[in-house]
């Protein structure tokens, strides 16, 4: 048996709460860009008041678009490739005891950080384990302070997948109930092109060519970020890999601990890896 302690890698999802302004033209989707890259260059556009975005729209967001305070990307046809798909549009609760609160207030941030993940879980389906093992995640956008002052109070929840550091994965088709499907993790799971932590490793969605896969998660006890794997993590990941192996006495396996930033953002579990 080969025990492999993996360096902490990028989490499958962004793991951060985004409060951003987003402009949607509310009308006809723009044509698909000629390039099929999943991370197009951002193109500055004039700042104009955003309209309430439509639901079930698709976008070609770059990673920087997803983490920027605003994005002016227009929708593209959902029949083609995209990197973000809107699954919920709602109204912000900005009225407290008869007084309006700012769109960037703690109350509004907490509403978005609570509502979009809840809607996301219902949208993509699956149990908590399946969602942890998938590359699907959610980001959300709201009006800028200036747009809010003009009376806009919408928010938008999008599903994305972080393929690798600084890059969103290309998505296709409907993502509703994606993790309820039998092939859910085989399509949207976390996979690698080589043994994680070695040269040639690249994190990819499992629909792409791969040789390793994240196959389970193990909760990490305690409240402090672990600098080494607890025994429960090693035992849990080893047992999972053994159950999948052809030879219970000789098999490869590994685990991935969360980085400190991931731990502080709420990821208190380890990923177990095994050859696909």
From TrEMBL:
Superkingdom as given in the UniProt entry: Bacteria
InterPro entries cross-referenced by the UniProt entry:
Septum_form
**Species whose genome carries this gene:** Nocardioides guangzhouensis
Which regions are flagged for Low complexity bias? 32-50
Please state what the protein is called.
Septum formation-related domain-containing protein
Instruction: Give the residue spans that cross the bilayer.
Output: none
In this chain, the stretch annotated as Disordered covers 24-55
Any Pfam family the entry gives: Septum_form
User: Boundaries of each Septum formation-related domain copy?
Assistant: 136-272
């Amino acid at each position: 048996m080969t025990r492999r302690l993996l360096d902490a890698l990028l989490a499958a999802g962004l793991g951060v709460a985004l409060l951003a302004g987003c402009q949607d033209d509310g009308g006809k989707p723009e044509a698909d860009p000629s390039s099929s890259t999943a991370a197009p260059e951002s193109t500055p556009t004039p700042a104009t008041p955003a309209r309430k975005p439509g639901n079930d729209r698709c976008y070609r967001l770059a990673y920087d678009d997803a983490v920027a305070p605003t994005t002016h990307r227009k929708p593209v046809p959902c029949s083609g490739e995209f990197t973000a798909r809107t699954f919920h549009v709602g109204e912000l609760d900005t009225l407290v005891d008869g007084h309006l609160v700012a769109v960037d207030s703690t109350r509004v941030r907490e509403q978005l950080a609570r509502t979009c993940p809840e809607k996301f879980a219902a949208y993509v389906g699956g149990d908590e384990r399946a969602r942890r093992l998938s590359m699907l995640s959610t980001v959300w956008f709201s009006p800028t302070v200036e747009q809010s002052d003009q009376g806009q109070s919408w928010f938008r929840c999008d599903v994305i997948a972080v393929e690798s550091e600084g890059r969103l994965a290309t998505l296709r088709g409907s993502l509703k109930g994606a993790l309820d499907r039998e092939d859910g993790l085989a399509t949207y799971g976390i996979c690698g092109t080589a043994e994680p932590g070695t040269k040639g490793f690249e994190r990819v969605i499992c629909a792409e060519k791969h040789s390793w896969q994240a196959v389970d998660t193990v909760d990490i006890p305690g409240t402090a970020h672990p600098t080494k794997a607890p025994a429960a993590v090693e035992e849990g990941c080893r047992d999972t890999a053994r159950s999948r192996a052809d030879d219970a006495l000789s098999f490869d396996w590994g685990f991935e601990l969360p980085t400190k930033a991931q731990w502080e953002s709420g990821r208190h579990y380890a990923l177990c890896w095994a050859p696909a």
